[in-house]
Design brief:
- The protein has 248 residues and is of the alpha/beta class.
- Helices cover 52% and strands 21% of the residues.
- It is built from 7 helices and 8 strands, in the order αββαββαβαβαββαα.
- IF-3 binds to the 30S ribosomal subunit and shifts the equilibrium between 70S ribosomes and their 50S and 30S subunits in favor of the free subunits, thus enhancing the availability of 30S subunits on which protein synthesis initiation begins.
Length: 248
């Protein structure tokens, strides 16, 4: 590498460092964590007490002395203010509570999912009941359901069969969901979207309550809960062939 190329690289690095330093000097911060205690580098601060009371503008040394007196941390909560606003608090406890709130918010966050169910225009009554059961379960969970009617061969000349089937399904689950997108032809398929009456958050809350109730009942009656679990297992095994034939 020639000397000129080396000088060019060094100049670019020096310019990048100068830009970073200038940005930090204007009040930016590389770390997202607030400055606390002796990391605060200003002559005076606007101090807020432990209970939220306004102490006023005090020298930094006085604020650090009060923090030590209360056995708390001096935390910079508004770095861009003039002078910066600092609060006396237990910073470790504050971080823990903030992390728990964020975790609880993520736990309660609702993600609406679009499930899909495929049917044939001349579906068998038993298969229809099985598919409808899946749609009912999805709607109870607060999810949207995309219903697809698949036409093959000569069935494409009879779109009214698919339309009537979609109308029938919408009427059968009207107490749980509504037609969000009316039936429309999409190539060889006809599509309709059902939306749940119940919000996802409500469905999640009810599911958690039901789970807690089952746990409490199982703890109170262990023998009964075991028999119920065996009955559920037997019921699932008896329904498995029907679901397989419906999907086929």
């Amino acid at each position: 590498m020639c000397f000129g190329a080396v000088r060019s690289i060094e100049k670019r690095r020096y310019a990048a460092v100068r830009q970073t330093v200038a940005w930090c000097y204007r009040g930016g911060s590389i770390s997202a964590e607030p400055r606390i205690n002796d990391r605060i580098r200003v002559p005076e601060v606007r101090l807020v007490g432990p209970s939220g009371e306004q102490v006023g503008i005090v020298p930094l040394a006085k604020a650090l002395e009060l923090a030590q007196e209360y056995d708390l941390d001096l935390v910079e909560v508004a770095a861009n203010a003039r002078p910066p606003v600092c609060k006396l608090m237990d910073y470790g406890k504050f971080k823990y509570e903030s992390a728990m709130k964020a975790r609880e918010a993520r736990k309660n966050q609702a993600h609406t999912v679009i499930k899909e169910m495929k049917l044939r225009p001349k579906i068998d009554p038993h298969d229809y009941d099985t598919k409808k059961g899946h749609v009912v379960r999805f709607l109870k969970q607060g999810d949207k359901v995309k219903i697809t009617i698949m036409f093959r061969g000569r069935e494409q000349s009879r779109p009214e069969l698919g339309y009537r089937l979609l109308q029938r399904l919408a009427e059968d689950v009207a107490d749980l969901g509504f037609v969000e997108s009316n039936p429309k032809q999409d190539g060889r398929n006809m599509i309709m979207v059902l939306g749940p009456h119940k919000k996802k958050t409500e469905a999640m809350a009810e599911a958690r309550q039901a789970q807690e109730a089952r746990k409490a009942e199982a703890k109170a009656n262990p023998g009964k809960s075991q028999n119920a679990a065996e009955a559920d297992l037997a019921e699932d095994s008896s329904e498995a062939p029907a679901e397989a034939s419906a999907d086929a």
